[in-house]
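User: Let's play a game. I give you a shape written as C-alpha cells, and you guess the letters that built it. Ready? Here's round one.
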C-alpha cells in the first residue's frame, strides 16, 4: 500500500476529490491531504464541508464528511503547513494529485512558487521525478492556461482535465465522476473498480443499418446474380 498526497484547490469539482479520497482509502492506501484557502471556500460551497479558512479545521471535518473508516486513513494539514512531512523530498509520497486543480495553482506550480503545502508538494514531486497528476477544471481555456499545461506536461506532470466521456452511457453524476477518477487511478497504476473499461462498439441492430441505394443491408447488390 502507498501513501499519496491529495491537494484540493479552488477549482470547481470537489465531488471528484471526494470520490478520489474514498477510492484510495477503500483500497487501503494512506492519504496526506491539504486544501488551499480557495479550496476551503469551494469545499464549503459545493459539499457543505467546513474546513476553516485555510484547512485548519479539515482534520476534524473528515469523519463527518467521509466517514470514520475513510478519515482514519487520511492525515489532513493546513495549507500553510509547508514544514509538514509531505513537503520534503525525503517523504516517500507515491504520487501527488491536485484534484481539482485551479488555473491559479496550475500557474504557480508551473512557475515553482511553492507558496503553500499543495504547491510545495507538487514542486517536490517534479524535483524528485515522482508522479504529479493535475486535474485542471476551467473552460474555456486561455493561452496562459494552455501554455502552463503544455509546459507542465513537458516537465513530466500528467494533465488530466476533469473531462468525462459519454461513450460509456452514464446514467448519473456518479458515473461521470467515476469516469474521471478511473482515469486518475490508471495513471497511478492502481486497479480501479469505478472507471468503465471500453469493450468495443456493440454491433448495431441490422434494421438500423442504412444501405446505399441498390445495396441490401446484407451487402448484396440488388438485382445482381
Ligand atoms: C465557486 C467557485 C468556483 C470556482 N471554479 C473555478 C474553476 O473551475 N477553475 C478555476 O481555475 N478557478 C475557479 N475558481 C476561482 C479560484 O478559486 C481562484 O482563482 C483562486 O484564487 C484559486 O486559488 P488556489 O489555486 O490557491 O486554490 C472558482 C472560485 C469559486 C468561488
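Assistant: Ready! My guess for every position:
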Amino acid at each position: 500500500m502507498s501513501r499519496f498526497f491529495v491537494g484540493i484547490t479552488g477549482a470547481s469539482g470537489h465531488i471528484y476529490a471526494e470520490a478520489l479520497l474514498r477510492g484510495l482509502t477503500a483500497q487501503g492506501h494512506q492519504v496526506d491531504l491539504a486544501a488551499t484557502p480557495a479550496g476551503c471556500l469551494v469545499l464549503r460551497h459545493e459539499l457543505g464541508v467546513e474546513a476553516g479558512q485555510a484547512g485548519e479545521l479539515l482534520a476534524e471535518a473528515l469523519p463527518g464528511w467521509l466517514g470514520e473508516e475513510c478519515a482514519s486513513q487520511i492525515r489532513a494539514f493546513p495549507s500553510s503547513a509547508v514544514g509538514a512531512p509531505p513537503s520534503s523530498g525525503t517523504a516517500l509520497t507515491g504520487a501527488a494529485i491536485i484534484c481539482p486543480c485551479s488555473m491559479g495553482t496550475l500557474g504557480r506550480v508551473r512557475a515553482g512558487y511553492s507558496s503553500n503545502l499543495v504547491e510545495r508538494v507538487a514542486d517536490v514531486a517534479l524535483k524528485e521525478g515522482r508522479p504529479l497528476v493535475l486535474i485542471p477544471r476551467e473552460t474555456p481555456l486561455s493561452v496562459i492556461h494552455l501554455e502552463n499545461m503544455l509546459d507542465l506536461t513537458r516537465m513530466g506532470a500528467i494533465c488530466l482535465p476533469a473531462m468525462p466521456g459519454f461513450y460509456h452511457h452514464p446514467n448519473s453524476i456518479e458515473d461521470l465522476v467515476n469516469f474521471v477518477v478511473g482515469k486518475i487511478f490508471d495513471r497511478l497504476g492502481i486497479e480501479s473498480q469505478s472507471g468503465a473499461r471500453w469493450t468495443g462498439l456493440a454491433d448495431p441492430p441490422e434494421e438500423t443499418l442504412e444501405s446505399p441505394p441498390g445495396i441490401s443491408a446484407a451487402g448484396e447488390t440488388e438485382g445482381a446474380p
